[in-house]
Amino acid sequence: MKKITFLLFCLFTTYSFAQEKPVRMGIAGMTHDHVRQILNNINRAGLEIVGFAEPNKELALRLLKQYKLPESLWYRSLDEMLIKAKPEAVCDFRSIVEHLETVQKCAVKGVHVMVEKPLAVNLAHAIQMETLAKKYKIQLLTNYETTWYASNHQAYEMIHEQNTIGDIRKVVIHDGHRGPKEIGVSKEFFGWLTDPIKNGGGAIIDFGCYGADIMAWLMKGEKPTSVTAVTQTIKPETYPKVDDEATIIVTYPKAQGIFQASWNWPFDRKDMEIYGQTGYIYADKSMQMNIRKGDRNAFPEEVITVKPLETPRNDPFSYFSAVVRGTIKSENDLGSLKINMVAMTILDAAVKSSKTGKTIMLK
């Protein structure tokens, strides 16, 4: 009966979403390589792309031409796009330090915002952004690649709804690759990604934020009691201003989280191990998960197939549109402001810990 009810709910939600007027959506900035996610396909369910605001005209026109999009979509500034294109929502693909400015300009006009991860360059900026979002009653979301991994959502369901592994005791989250230069990011992206002012740090921000977000979500918004972080710059010739290796440890009264962030690994990975009182879950972006319940000698590891996410929860831009229209309530989701304020508390403390060599106590 529960399964039938769930299927009917999904069908109703998808139908209702399809009937909504498309959200007029603008793009702020094109220096973040993740902007290619929307350039690659602007025809997403529930939205209409009305403009790209990018002061670097050469970059903007080059990308629009590459993806066979009209030059008429280009605006020389966010201000110009807000006035002329009149978007209802804006996705920010600029440097992290510019997220605050985007919210400052959009919030007063009642324009909703979704930024690329993390929410802000530091906690002080995040607090200002939260204040503006609440004052002007706009949605403020953060987009992470891992939000759209169906396995993460199934793991959450197994922990909090099915009690598959008991209470969480330890979560180990891995996020990394060979490094921005090594994987060939654009010069525009590399320029600010490796700038401690514009990005807030190196690998600790770029990849440590994934762990902070997922842990905050798994713990249902509970703040940790302490945060400890260690960073290194293993390749100073390539990354002279920021770290390229980071480990963050967060503690709770009855749980720990370890986030391993790297620009030094020989291959890309984004995955997590969740250890509970009575079992274990391993999840990555594939459509399979590894589960073990109870003692490893008595209960062999089981591989299960992951349930795919339903539309519009399987796409960041369609999801954002659904939140703007009120079809989806995002309060406790991975991209929500509530969860990301906790994530920023963790990330900010991690940066401070890495610089001082001390554990930061939060409670």
Summarize the structure.
The chain has 13 helices and 15 strands. The protein is an alpha/beta fold.
Description of the structure:
The chain has helices spanning 2-19, 36-39, 57-66, 78-84, 99-107, 123-135, 150-160, 180-183, 187-193, 203-206, 208-218, 316-325, 337-356; strands at residues 23-28, 47-53, 74-75, 89-92, 112-116, 140-143, 168-176, 226-232, 245-252, 255-262, 269-276, 279-283, 288-293, 302-305, 360-361. It is built from 13 helices and 15 strands. It starts with a helix and ends with a strand. The protein has a 9-stranded mixed beta sheet with strand order 14-13-12-11-7-10-9-8-15. A 6-stranded parallel beta sheet has the order 3-2-1-4-5-6.
- Compressed to H and E, one letter per element, the order equals HEHEHEHEHEHEHEHHHHEEEEEEEHHE
Mean pLDDT score, rounded? 94
How helix-rich are the residues, as a percent range? 25-40%
Residue stretches low in confidence (pLDDT < 50, at least 5 long) are 1-9, 11-17
Cα distance, first to last residue?
43 Å
Can you count the helices? 13
What about the largest sheet?
A: 9 strands, mixed
- Radius of gyration equals 20 Å
How many β strands by DSSP?
15
- In terms of DSSP E residues, the strand content is 15-25%
- General form: globular
Kindly report the spatial arrangement of strands forming the biggest sheet: 14-13-12-11-7-10-9-8-15
List keywords for this structure.
6-stranded parallel beta sheet; globular; 9-stranded mixed beta sheet; 363 residues; 15 strands; alpha/beta; single chain; disordered N terminus
